[in-house]
What we know:
The structure is a homodimer.
Chain A: H1 2-26, E1 30-35, H2 42-53, E2 59-65, H3 70-76, E3 81-86, H4 95-102, E4 112-116, E5 133-139, H5 146-149, H6 151-156, E6 159-163, H7 175-185, E7 190-193, H8 202-217
Parallel strand pairs in A: 1-4, 1-5, 2-3, 2-4, 5-6, 6-7
Amino acid sequence: MEIKVVKKVLEANEVIASQNRRLFREKGIYVVNLMGSPGAGKTTLLERTLLHLKDKKRVGVIEGDIATSRDAERIAAHAASTVQINTGGACHLDGNMVRGGIGEFDLDQIDILIVENVGNLVCPAEFKIGENDKVMIISVPEGDDKPQKYPLMFQVSSVLLLNKIDLLPYLDFDMEHFRGDALRVNPRMEIMAISCKTGEGLDSWFRWIEERTSRSAS
Amino acid sequence: MEIKVVKKVLEANEVIASQNRRLFREKGIYVVNLMGSPGAGKTTLLERTLLHLKDKKRVGVIEGDIATSRDAERIAAHAASTVQINTGGACHLDGNMVRGGIGEFDLDQIDILIVENVGNLVCPAEFKIGENDKVMIISVPEGDDKPQKYPLMFQVSSVLLLNKIDLLPYLDFDMEHFRGDALRVNPRMEIMAISCKTGEGLDSWFRWIEERTSRSAS
Lengths: 218, 218
């Protein structure tokens, strides 16, 4: 019973997500759906990315949160434009929420839209929003056993950013085990080890997003 | 539309959860619903707790996971009996899943049932399973800004375990800010700072769960 209901909700969402997708394509906007657990480092990654892209691309940001506009306030200083979506309890963004958010932007003034999803390693992976790529961020303290335990997010993501590698000396985290498990779940995924605190590894991520943006614009 | 559907699911769940609750009361079993993000330390806390209670109480464990039985395997060595529930994609346990799990136990042989929910700081908080207390665990690397951003779980929990305090020297985590925010969201919540790695602070938690168990048995 519950499963049927969920399926219907997902189907309705696919339709709206495709409409968003079409609109983004028409406007030549490259869209990233950024997902990860609470505290994985989504907002800090976004700040770093916006600083890097500042003079190269015009970046719009949608901040998805259950409550508060704290992340949007952190981000607003760096982005061309920022829209906050408060889900009011819902544990993920869906196509319809993002459609509402898009209305607040001048889409002719944006090259990239980064959507920071609600902090959750599970539900956001089920709901398309019209993105080109899903990008997941997970942090070293979350443990090296996550790919098999939370497989869907690993399956649907184009890139896996493993954040907080500056904490590796203080934790038992088996990098090879983690990489192996992640690639078994999704062999096509690109894995980048980063630290948003020290900046280590971020160059690969910056190159990746710039390259994808150019490709989607051409 | 979607909200109505969710409401109906929640109402149906309340009914089943109350039935579980009644059964647990009849059998004199104290039940904890243990919740937190992936990697917050739920399974390690459980191992520590089981070791402590070993010669004092008979503890049954339900392990909720989306996939794999890794946690149940870790736990089985220490618990009187362990049941694995794989949600097959669902991001939380509900009353019905737990009802299925209960059938696998001899309820006359258990004093405490600890249910480790799916790793998720959002959805599990919405679904009662028949517990006496909800206990949440969150770890220092997740950041000090979580109470206001993910309020529901803080609101419904009797105890907040702040784990991985051994990592405080390496992170920017403002303990007073965090405590203040958490208590604003839920003034009745007990907050315990712990490290499942070093054992620091766990005594308070052990005392709490023993005290609650005795009270529910009397």
